[in-house]
Amino acid sequence: MFVGDDDETPGPLSPRAVERAATVVSQLERMRPDAFAHARRVAALAVRVARRAHFPEERVEQVYWGALLHDIGELNVQVALFHHDARLDERDRIAICQHTTVGARWLSAVPGLAPLVPFARWHHERFDGLGYPDGITAQEVPLAVSLVGVCDAWDALTQPRPYRDPLTTDEAAEEMMRHSGRQWSGPLVIWTIECALLPSDVTDDCDDAA
Fold it and tell me: Nearest 10 degrees: CA dihedral of 65, 188, 160, 103?
């Protein structure tokens, strides 16, 4: 077992809550296909890492839905900001950072989706407490949320941005290892890299690697 797996986000999702989560995901797919594609990649990787960490299946399900909806607050951000061909200025950066609190507020208003609120609010928090929006440390962020944050970072590094080419997997792995123990949990970084480098049709190897 991973040492932090007693650190849980609230409760499993009920069947009705899963239906509501799926409805919200469909809205994301319709309004921001690019964000939906990102969320699907993050969710697929996060599930593999969660099983690598021996999460119980109800928590794996929570990770899956949390990953799908972690960026739901981006629906409140002007789409043009995500297609900027240069790095954002401070005002635009603040606008994008607000997707965490907006997403958390939206999910908290949907009956049954309270367990997913931490994924929206805290997926950009850092291991060392220098993230946003609340500047809390790894000890205060649920492990499942930290896991999704690491998978989110991997996808961000390995996908193209308007202002840069994607990193190769080797470059992304090097970058994440460089910030391991400061920005992200060391074990989660290692497991994310291991699972990300497996062929897409392989699932059991990641689960059984421990």
Answer: 40
Per the structure, the complete domain to which residue 194 belongs is given by 15-207
Query: What is the amino acid identity at position 161?
Result: R
**Is there a domain that residue 9 lies in?**
no
Predicted confidence at residue 81, as pLDDT, reads 72
Q: Is the pTM of this model over 0.70?
A: yes
Number of domains forming the structure of the chain: 1
Q: What DSSP state is assigned to residue 115?
A: G
Place of tokens 């401070």: 90
Residue 133, preceding peptide bond in cis (omega within 30° of 0): yes
Q: Is residue 196 part of a domain?
A: yes
pLDDT digits (tens, 9 = 90+) for 124-167: 999 999 999 999 999 999 999 999 999 999 999 999 988 889 99
> Does residue 152 lie in a domain region?
yes
Does residue 144 fall inside a structural domain? yes
CATH number, domain of 154, equals 1.10.3210.10
CB < 8 Å & 24+ apart, contacts of 17-21:
17/111, 17/112, 17/113, 17/115, 18/61, 18/65, 20/110, 20/111, 20/112, 20/113, 21/65, 21/68, 21/69, 21/113, 21/116
AA identity, residue 166: P
